[in-house]
Amino acid sequence: MSDNPISPLRQRLIDDMTARRYGEKAQKAYVRHVRTFTAFLGRSPDTATKEDLRGFQLHLAQQQISAGSINAAITALRFFFTVTLERPEIVRPLRTVNKPRRTPVVLSQEEMARLLEAAPSLKYKAALSVAYGAGLRVSEVANLKVSDIDSGRMMLRVEQGKGQRDRYVMLSPQLLELLRDWWRAARPPVWLFPGQNPINPITPRQLNRAVTVAKDLAGISKRISPHTLRHGFATHLLEQGVDIRVIQLEPTARYTRVAVSTVRDIKSPLERLGVNLARRSPPA
Length: 284
Fold this sequence. Notes:
The chain has 284 residues and is mainly alpha-helical. It is built from twelve helices and three strands. It folds into two domains: 8-91, DNA polymerase, domain 1; 109-272, hpI Integrase, Chain A (Orthogonal Bundle), CATH 1.10.443.10. The chain has helices at residues 8-19, 24-41, 50-62, 67-84, 109-117, 122-134, 138-142, 173-186, 204-218, 226-239, 244-247, 260-264, and strands spanning 149-150, 155-158, 167-170.
């Protein structure tokens, strides 16, 4: 995880996570949280007691750390003590904290149309239209490949999305035409939306900047992000009366495993905006 010598205990933690196919980002986070606990404890973490863990959670709460950060630390420590140290009884005092629920910002259909039309280039117009028209997360948009477009079945394949699961999402006729315009203009060989170095995909940060630029050009005052497009997808489909089980966005529910034909037959909200997004912007 770093250039410094790795202690046997940390290596065992890393090995346990690797064996369970945890991603690099998750591994770094878990190691960081265990390291923070060790610094608080002032000695090796394998000597910790229940009271030490109780005191650490109180310490986190007194630091006014966000609920999400506290829960992430608790998850990491539960793994460390339960799996790596095989001491599950010691983490019983740890309790996750409730996150404040906030109503997501949702754009109206008219605002969504203005946002997409104001995208700074054909590349970003296509990428943001995928996020809205298919309800994808920004990381899923960034990692799409040209080969993920299935025009025969009018589907997009999302490879290893959240939860490391593959799934298919709708590909509307208007979105397909826009993607074809983008492909003809740029001829991306592998990644549908290449980054500054074409061997890598575009980054979520680049897509976030594109949303900010489009928002300003469209005169939208609401505070939005690329995830706002996904919320808009769900909300606008709900307004059409589409079964919530098909478009469920909650992380615990993910997407219901429905037949491909069911997803394909739903009319994307992109088709209802009343605008033609294709052939309007110069290539990136």
